[in-house]
Amino acid sequence: MSTAAPIRSETAAAAASLDSVSKIYGAFAALRNVTTSFPAGSSTVILGENGAGKSTMLRVLAGLITPTRGKAIVFGGPPHLHRHRVAYMSHSTMLYDELTAMENLTYFATLHRGDGCACVGSPEMALRAVGLDPALTRPVGQYSQGMRQRASLARVLQTDPELLLLDEPFSNLDVKSAGQLVELLADFRTWPVPGGGSRTLILTTHQASLAEPLADRTLTMRQGQIVDLSTGTNG
Amino acid sequence: MKYLGYVFEHLRKDLRLEWRSRDAINGMLFFVLLMVVVFSIAFDPAGYPSVTRQISGGILWVGLLFASMTALNQSWSREQRNQVLEAQRMAPSPASALFVGKALANMLFVLAVEAVLAPIFVVFFNLHVLGNAKLLALILPLGTWALVVNGTFFAALGLRARNRELLLPLILLPLSLPAVLMMVQATTGVLTGELDPIYLRSWITQLAGYDLIYTVVCVLLFETVLNAE
Question: Is residue A26 included in any domain, yes or no?
């Protein structure tokens, strides 16, 4: 067990925040009394080894899991009430292997169109933005790992999210592709938000050097706790 | 109207996935065809035509029930692969639309199997329908929906279970017993022509009621099931 005292970080204008959040699976605490907030418009990189609780934190913010104790707040309310403003990309592709990237994106775009949903970008534009050809007829299952990762990113970008949660986006990417992804994410932060506001980015990685250009803030996690918080070069 | 649009999108996606892989239909088809062959050998339909007519409704529906279970688990495993289900959960569209779309897709798969099976079943069991054959056009879809609506729901319920292949029959079979009784009685009534039309209508009405009740309950509870940890 770690003896490090948990670091609490709070700011006023937060896109998302965690208040004394713990997530316990049986005898294992994936998150231990975490309190932090993510300022609107900021880019936060969460570092940590495998099992540090990075992915659990993102999943709590995405509303995919409920904290055992404490509460997660996204845009002032419970995460599940703001799904149209939040996008989550896990280390799996979250795409159907049997469908082409275009078919996958068109399908998910349709599910995001509706009441209260922000403007949804076109699947073609999203695919072009990540460097994939929308006319590709191969199913996603036949893509290389890098192409799958980019198609997965296109899926989340097309929903035009105000809060983008990325879990290990650089895994399976070579250095050049990772660099392109960083540029794309930096560009994404400048996209105008319909109705004003700003875009918030939270990403986890254990490749700190790759994410450095994006980091306004860097959180380091160990054994379910935030053990270090630093302000990056962009912050 | 928007809700139906979501249902249609889910249905279209499931049909497309099945068209590309053909996992569900092929599995079900081989299963029921083998079953028809085995039972036709075991019961000697040519020697005992009246007995065959009495039992063939039961064989048909029990065979379809077991066959559909192979497809029902598979329909949700597609959503689990690559964590696609999490993308579904993150989507702001109604969760129940996913359920209805998938149940409709499963229904079409089972109906497709029935369409292939029907003539083979008639030949192997030497069947001559003695009742009003048109009623089968009502009984078959109602019975199929009874199987798939519960099956799709309980397959989703078992998504996070370690032994989900075992869990589905354990839950689905007891719950389907009333529906199986209704469909078998109605089908046998049509095949033998011996059932009073009033009783026959009563079985069909009860089956429709069963479908309605379970559809409403499954639709209302699906979001809870989908987001359960």
Answer: yes
A35 CA: distance to closest CA in chain B (Å): 23
CA distance A7 to B161: 36
Interface contact flag, A84 B92, Cβ < 8 Å: yes
Amino acid found at A128: R
Is B77 within 8 Å of chain A by CB? no
Residue partners of A145: CB distance under 8 A and separation at least 6: A172, A173
Does A198 fall in a domain?
yes
> Which residue segment(s) compose the domain that A97 sits in?
14-231
Could you tell me if B224 lies within 8 Å of chain A, comparing CB atoms? no
Neighbours of B197 (CB within 10 A): 11
CATH number of the domain enclosing A183: 3.40.50.300
Q: B86 — contact with chain A (CB < 8 Å)?
A: yes
Quick: pLDDT tens for B200-210: 999 999 999 99
Residue A2 lies in a domain: no
Whole-number pLDDT of residue B101: 97
Residue B130 corresponds to which amino acid?
A: L
Query: Does residue A176 lie within any of the structural domains?
Result: yes
H-run or E-run covering A86: strand A86-89
Its ipTM equals 0.87
* Total domain count, chain A: 1
| Contact between A108 and B6 using a beta-carbon 8 Å cutoff | no
Chain A interface includes B91 (CB < 8 A): yes
* Residues in chain B, overall count: 229
> Per CB distance under 8 Å, which residues of A are interface residues toward B?
62-66, 80, 83-84, 86-88, 90, 92-99, 103, 107-108, 110-112, 114-117, 139, 155
- Which long-range contacts does B210-213 make (Cβ < 8 Å, 24+ apart)? B210/B146, B210/B178, B210/B179, B210/B182, B211/B142, B211/B145, B211/B146, B211/B149, B211/B179
Interface size between A and B, measured as CB pairs under 8 A: 74
Model's pTM, two decimal places?
0.89
| Shortest Cα distance, chain B CAs vs residue A93, angstroms | 6
Burial B202-219 (b: 16+ CB within 10 A, else e): ebbebbeebbeebbeebb
Distance CA A191, CA A104 (A): 23
pLDDT exceeds cutoff 80 at A232: no
Euclidean distance between CA atoms B66 and B28, whole angstroms? 9
